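Why show two proteins at once? Because comparison is the fastest way to build intuition. When a single record is shown, students tend to memorize it. When two are placed side by side, the eye starts asking what differs. So, the first record is below.
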Amino acid sequence: MSARGLTLIEVMMALAVLALVATLALPSFAAMGERARLKSVAETLAADLAQARLEAARRGLPLHVEFDSRPDWCWGVATRSGCSCGEPQPCQLKTEHAADHAGIELVDARNAHLEPAGFALQGGGAEFRAPHDERLRVVLAALGPAHICAPRAPVTGYPAC
């Protein structure tokens, strides 16, 4: 009668190989998560700029997208210029904070002034960096939607700037 099953040595070898593969794959999973957060923040800003343009036209009033570039950065869509996104205020329509995008740094930012006629009197945008130095830039032109591009090495799904 033959014995079925695995010996302790065979099980230990399989676990060692599995541990080795997991150790090699872990850095790529971390980079994938950082890249997803980078894409998320860029797409959120592009959507907020588009929504602010539409909302300015709907209300018949200018709107402002303004940034605070401190390490705990934020941006806000507001009914008046100078409405800080750092603390809740009645002039804010929407805010977004660094805490919601862990590990993503705001490298550069330009405030936007959106007119009710549908154009950006002052185009705006920002550049974000992930910990592995991947970057995405969001640019709002005077007319048309905001676009996202990669200023350095390509980020999958986005053209070079």
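Second record. Ask yourself what differs from the first in the token line.
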Amino acid sequence: MDKYFEEAIAQARKSFSEGGIPIGSVIVYQDKILGKGHNKRIQQGSVVLHGEMDALENAGRQAAEIYQHSVLYTTLSPCPMCTGAILLYGIPKVVIGENKTFLGSEDLLKSHGVEVEVLNNQECIDLMDSFIRLHPEIWFEDIGEPG
């Protein structure tokens, strides 16, 4: 397994251990992690600190060309908000752990020329399945009730 994706999973596990939603993300530029983060909606009562947004926040202010040559790793398919940030900063490639428990805006990413790679990682699926089973009310408050 790719070391950067392993770090994204470590971030997801960290969030789960803190009582949060198990989603982690890492932004990599020239084989160096610029920023890593995990979903902090529960821990910080935040409406915007999804895993990808936390990783971007922790990467700090970077020149546009750095983001335009970076790869974002995330354990779950990016929601519309996170997809917007990926497009805003021109990140050209996104590696996704899984999209079985939630299919985000992958088609929008692809339609803007972003390379999308889905790994279908079982640990990512299991972490999300466990969280949704244990805390459906928390999960659905963010993404809306199913069906």
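One difference worth noting in the second protein: The longest strand covers residues 32-38.
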